[in-house]
Amino acid sequence: MNCDLESLIYILEDSVKFSVIDSTLTYGNKNHHLSYTETRILELLIKNSGSVVSKIQLIEYSWTGRVVAETSLAKSISNIRKVFRECEFHDDNVIQTIPRLGYRLNLRSNVYEEKMDETSNLIFLEETKAISDSMAPRAMIKYADSYLGINFKKIISYLVCFILLSASVTFLYETIHSSHSNFIDPDYEKISINIENKEYIVIKNKNSNIPSRITNLISLAPSGTLVFYKMKSNVISLSYRIDNHAISFTFHADGLDKAKCVIKGAIEKEKHVCVL
To answer: What range(s) does the OmpR/PhoB-type domain occupy (predicted)?
Structure first.
């Protein structure tokens, strides 16, 4: 009995092969590898070829629930365009930026199901046009179970981060935003600190100090901001109260450079929840 593994294959403009399960674009004899998120972005654009796909849709589909800045999406789009140029698609409007709306793929594609057995057959599924005649969404085709299994550990990791983040947000609202009480957990204290001539109120564990690397992150917020800081098992939680808005972040201690960039952008754009 043969065991067949089916995967989706897209042929773009009859010249470039895109394999979803392998995350590769093949032109001639050369393979170009994409990241997981780049693969998801390109797949969604192909499924909606000729139609505008919003930035929110692309982020939710490609980062599977994580909250990321639009700059991350723009960088991934730039990387995909670079690969397309290496495949002789030199016009960046192959992936067209639609201001304030999103992106549109302007390529014709054929969709196949590839059976990886001794015959390695390609089964034709459908053809998509470069400019769609209909705005109706195409049916989403399920990945092979083996492809989903690869990302199981990532899903667990994200789930743990969201649990920690939820605990941080809950604590912040219970201790800071209550209009009926100024209660602070006995293990925590509220202190005032001055950073670069800006005043901050910080709620932290009584037994912990605030290292300089954290004060650098606190100073990204405007003067007068109320900040909650907690570090446990090398995971840092930072929550800011800015103009009656709570913005919360959870990240590993070894990711401070990335955290600084994301926190700065999120505060400027009022993104309320981020997991790094």
So the answer is: 7-107
